[in-house]
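User: quick one - fold this with protoporphyrin IX containing FE bound?
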Amino acid sequence: MAFSWILSYPVTSLLVAYIAYLGGLVIYRLYFHPLAKFPGPKYAAISRWHEFYYEVVKKGQFTFKVQEYHKRYGPIVRIVPDEIHIQDSQFYDTLYAKAGRVDKYDWMAGRFGCDTSVFTTGPDELHRIRRGALNPLFSRARIVDLQTIIREKISLLLDRLREFRTEGRILPINRAFMALTGDVVMEYCFSMTYDHLKLPNFEKTLHEPFMAASISGHLSLQCPWVPKLLFMLPESVLVKIEPLYALVFRMQADFRKQITAMKEGKMDDLIKESSHPTVFQELISGSMPPSEKETRRLQDEAQLVVAAGVTTTGWALSTATFHLLNNPHTLAKLRAELESAMPDPTAPLSWSELEKLPYLTGCVREAVRLSYAVTTRNPRLFNKPLAYKDWVIPARTPVSMTIVDVNDDEDIFPDPREFKPERWINPPKTKDGSSLERYFVGFGKGTRSCLGINLAHAELYMTLAAVFRNFRFELYDTDITDVELAHDFFLPSPRLDSNGVRVKVLEKE
Ligand code: HEM
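Assistant: Sure. Structure tokens for the protein plus protoporphyrin IX containing FE:
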């Protein structure tokens, strides 16, 4: 036999078998896979290595690479062997809202190390249980009641801004906003806060561990064994070799401690004294099945809900602040509206009253649009084939779109990178006459859309009104590259050496 010598060397024969397997896989993926006929680069049909390269090596660049694929191959592209991506703002509603209940892509659950959270849950039935328990706690009525707490925290923020003004110090306002959103969401979830609003320079907010989870997420997805291996190392070693993961594990341990303390009744006094319901206490005493109340499960939920509540809203406030200070005409219009609606700057309006102010509403819409919140594609899986133009996407194929693509679509939002509150006023329409609101997708759409939309809106309206009615600022050593999207770590990130949005708080006129 010609190849009999190979079989006498076990390592060689294993190697040959592996190469034959890889060759077979490449041929299958290129010519026989159900997605074989879809447009896209050949290398993308063969493996995920290009995704690894753009996400891990080039640090969050795959979203932009996918945009290049669309320029070359059209609105529908096979971006990795098993996934289809669509770039067509008209289709967003169909994919996320009209197509009904859908599953999420299990592969993506491993990104942050909180696999059992509501956001990372794959199957629709399980998601219903988890989301059903949270929904009433984040309803509009609940958030209307939470305004007292939000106002208390904003008032603390305003005190700190006065302090920076008196002392003539440079204010890292993006950090101040992260401290605000962190203190609000922790108070609502646990009836306690870390008082980050009181830190001298807001130097240690929850933004750091969440950003660490977000940055390390690409590697965790591509190589799921990495976090598992690192988790086994002592913290003292981990801090030296992988400080990002060290920060993530410490934050997770902290949430575990909070949940355990709550379950053991150690937080009962705090919760009884609290003027508002406490999200995790309600989940623990609510009607979810016992398996859903296990400490590890609730730890995952806490990590996700708090993370979603801190960075998104904090970054939207920072983005709006940059653009307002960078566009004096826009700022003047906002201030004129606020001065007429709030003649006494110390007497704040309610969230519902603020929502009636058209220019402020335009600023909130633009803040959400230009801060993007989630910059990675959001895959969905359907049990039936899905039609897109002449294409039929096989059932159970992960199909995604990316919010950034809609928010930056020139046909919908002319001069898409400009902060133009006017585009949302009187009555907002697109070029073809349809409602612009249809393309307001910053909170996602459908059954998996943002749980915290009411909390986010209350914070955005109330904070922008309070800050810009009471203070004047000047940007300090900050330009557009400090807010513009440069890296997609699931959460948006500007250039990595940015020092954030920094301002001088000016004396009153
Ligand atoms: C400007 C502020 C915010 C924006 C733009 C935003 C945006 C989003 C988006 C786009 C999604 C869906 C992602 C997907 O399609 O899979 C999402 C999900 C979610 N958001 Fe927000 N978010 C914001 C603030 C908040 C706040 C304040 C909270 C609450 C504390 C929150 C909690 C959540 C949760 C729990 C989910 C997962 C929902 C699920 O999978 O059922 N978000 N958010």
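One thing worth noting: The radius of gyration is 24 Å.
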